Amino acid sequence: MSAETVARLHLVLDNIEPAIWRRVDVPVTASLKMLHDVVQAAMGWENCHLWHFEAGDHRYGVPDPMWSESGMAAAKNVKLAALLDRGMKELVYTYDMGDDWRHTITVETVGPGEPDVKYPRFVAGERRCPPEDVGGLPGYEMFLDAMGDPTHEEHDRLRNWYGGPYNPDDIDERFTRRAVAAIAIRRHAGKLAYQKSRPQ
What is one Pfam family matched by this protein (predicted)? Predict the structure, then answer.
């Protein structure tokens, strides 16, 4: 199996200290829709809200047919390689327009991947992402305060809402690796099925 070209991407959730970040290897042939799936899996989001990418003056996501003037291009039709060919080294990914989680995605390197590795691949990361629907940055700060202090007036309610304790330093790396690997396995299976369907 020949090596495919892979981009190493650094994902950072904006405006949070200490930083919540991930590093992933993604094939440049991946669509931005697949990149969305990778970000969701790597960060630990649950993929239940609207999202879009911004690259220069362009936005990519899931266009709304009722709002054609929005200027949103279909993410499924754009490959990461097309942005790299235009010199793009940084993207902004926004998830959940209410909570407004903005991520800066930086292209660190582009080069041949390892021949025996299925991509995309989780490489490294630190800290757990905020819970869904926590209320954006202000809500997350209050959530952290309450969850870390059993005497906080909101501690019991928020622990019950979250479903148990919350450790912001634990990204659950095993789960994260498996979530990203599941995308790689589906992609590999799709490639094999396509090859088998082609005339010999």
Answer: PRiA4_ORF3
Percentage with pLDDT > 90 across the chain: 86
- The domains located in the chain, with CATH, are 5-129+171-197 (3.10.290.30)
Tokens of 13: 């959730």
Dihedral over Cα of 45, 47, 51, 53: its sign? positive
